[in-house]
Specification:
The protein is an alpha+beta fold and about 230 residues long. It contains eleven helices and four strands, in the order H-E-H-E-H-E-E-H-H-H-H-H-H-H-H. Helix 6 packs across helix 10. Bound molecules: glutathione (GSH) and 2-acetamido-2-deoxy-beta-D-glucopyranose. 2-acetamido-2-deoxy-beta-D-glucopyranose binds next to helix 8.
Length: about 230
């Protein structure tokens, strides 16, 4: 009863004055998984302290009833921050970039126009880059581990799609230092996990290195201390 009462009152108070007992942000995920890495990179850039709560994806812990309470689709990452629980890595990074606008690296720009450009390239990442990058990395890295035959047609069509996307990036990056403008932003950050999978783990580095501006961009963004910390998690 006491605990319940405390919880109910805690929720009431926190809705009025914000979180009272500030606890460390919990990031549910796995250190090797791309989507939690996207969130971790953002939290490091914003100097937000967090704890990684490991979810054993190979054991299927993300499909168990307790976890489905946190994420109805049974995927990682999930964030718990005070009395908030939420999922979808790109929604989470937007939240922290905005919430801590004045802390750590500015990832959203100063003007509405900066923001719109960053949002545009964030959407490009989510809707043009992510699918072929995910499919290609999955086939090369995980299909066999999961007892499936790598699908050569998927590998071929994903590479073709990525080639077109990266040609667009090459053009963009010949005119602008970063995707979202002249400064590192969420648009670049969001690419780190799957680009790393492709370049460092799947032997597909040539897709990036064969393009001068894309290659320089990758060199730059992947050497950020935040990303190095993510890889050490
Ligand atoms: N759009 C979601 C995707 C979440 C997602 O697909 N997570 C992957 C890791 S990158 C996962 O949980 N995979 C486990 C599975 O598919 O069983 C996000 O960005 O958070
Ligand atoms: C990723 O691969 C590149 C070569 O393509 C290498 O220079 C770099 O050190 C690698 N990074 C990590 C973190 O392993």
């Amino acid at each position: 009863m006491v605990a319940l009462d405390f919880r109910v009152r805690g929720r009431f108070v926190s809705s009025v004055v914000g979180c009272i007992v500030r606890m460390v942000v919990k990031l549910h995920g796995a250190a090797f998984a791309a989507c939690p890495r996207r969130v971790a990179a953002c939290l490091y850039e914003k100097n937000v302290e967090f704890e990684l709560v490991n979810v054993d994806l190979f054991a299927g812990d993300h499909k168990k009833p307790e976890f489905l309470q946190l994420h109805p689709f049974g995927l990682v990452p999930v964030i718990q921050d005070c009395d908030l629980t939420f999922f979808e890595s790109r929604a989470i990074i937007r939240y922290y970039a905005e919430k801590y606008a004045g802390q750590g690296t500015d990832l959203l720009g100063k003007s509405l126009e900066d923001r719109a450009t960053i949002e545009q390239w964030l959407e490009v990442e989510a809707h043009y880059f992510n699918e072929p990058a995910f499919s290609l990395a999955f086939q090369v890295l995980y299909a066999e581990k999961l007892g499936q035959e790598p699908d050569l047609n998927v590998i071929k069509s994903s590479e073709e799609k990525l080639t077109k996307v990266l040609d667009v990036y090459e053009e963009r990056l010949s005119k602008s230092k970063y995707l979202g403008g002249e400064f590192f932003s969420l648009a670049d950050l969001s690419h780190l996990p799957f680009a790393h999978y492709l370049i460092n783990d799947s032997g597909k580095g040539y897709l990036f290195h064969d393009r001068k501006h894309v290659s320089a961009w990758w060199e730059d963004i992947s050497s950020r201390p935040s990303w190095k910390k993510v890889l050490e998690l």
